[in-house]
Amino acid sequence: MLDAEKAGAASRLLVGHWDKGTRLDAIPQDLRPKTRIEGYAIQSHVMDRSAAPLFGWKIAATSLAGQRHINVDGPMAGRLIAEKAVEVGGTVSLVTSKMRVAEIEFAFRFGRPLPPRPAPYEIAEVMEAVASLHPAIEIPDSRYNDFCAVGAPQLIADNACANLFVIGEAVKDEWRDVNLAEHPVVGLISGKSQHNGSGVAVLGDPRVALTWIVNELSGLGTALEPGQLVITGTCVTPISVEAGDEVIGDLGRFGRVSVRFV
């Protein structure tokens, strides 16, 4: 089992590569996590580099195709760092990007806490704690040269490929009675291509994904806190981007969000 000192050292190594835009093949053996729990212990230290409170959480690998692509057997939770938020319509540099993709997602902001407990949370309980729904774009990235080869514990340690994200305005229309699994989601590269999907890509339903992360964190002794936001996974196949592209996430009645790449 990794002790706190080694978990912190592994995190500092990964965050150093994140800050510099460089990569490594794998975490050195003496610091390498062997289990998901050890991966999360390393990940927790990512907040040592942030001067702001935790912005929220992301879920990676919420589709079978995504899990197979990166060779994991289930979803993974990662932390959203406030300093990595991008304004709607903002600009993102691809100079140091490894993945070079954009993902269109549902985001949920919590209005009240969901503390850890022995019994699993049900979907209805989780949704009652949600204050608002938002359209979102995630721009993930990895600090590994081959993120498909390192396995779930190291991917979790590397913050589940968290990087940049864009959060749109809170949805004003009534959304709670809408079947989000069937709700159409469109990703557009302005003037170039259109990518269609729906909430069903996200563990079958974004609300199922949201409940999954609440219970994943509960099992780790971690609460979802009021004001924190969760992006629940991409509703479309990740969209490859290049410099000059503008990506628009269109959730129909639930609004739009956009970002430009240079």
CATH H-level superfamily = Fumarylacetoacetase-like, C-terminal domain
Biggest pleated-sheet summary: 8 strands, mixed
- What percentage of the residues does DSSP assign to strands (E)? 25-35%
Number of strands: 13
The overall pLDDT, averaged over residues, is 97
Q: Which CATH class?
A: Alpha Beta
User: N-to-C SSE series?
Assistant: HHEHEEEEHEHEEEHEEEE
Q: Round the Cα radius of gyration to an integer and report it.
A: 17 Å
First-to-last CA distance: 42 Å
- Percent of residues in helical segments? 10-25%
Structural class: alpha+beta
CATH fold-level assignment: Fumarylacetoacetate hydrolase, domain 2
- The total of helices stands at 6
Pfam families: FAA_hydrolase
Organism: Mesorhizobium loti R88b
GO molecular function, one term: 2-oxopent-4-enoate hydratase activity
Keywords: Lyase
Model description:
- By secondary structure, this protein is of the alpha+beta class.
- It has one domain: Fumarylacetoacetate hydrolase, domain 2 (Alpha-Beta Complex), CATH 3.90.850.
- It is built from 6 helices and 13 strands.
- Strands 1, 2, 3, 5, 6, 7, 10 and 11 form an 8-stranded mixed β-sheet that branches. Strands 4-13-12-8-9 form a 5-stranded mixed β-sheet, with no helix packed on it.
- Strand 12 and strand 13 form a beta hairpin.
- Helix 1 packs across helix 2.
- The protein starts with a helix and ends with a strand.
- The relative contact order is 0.22.
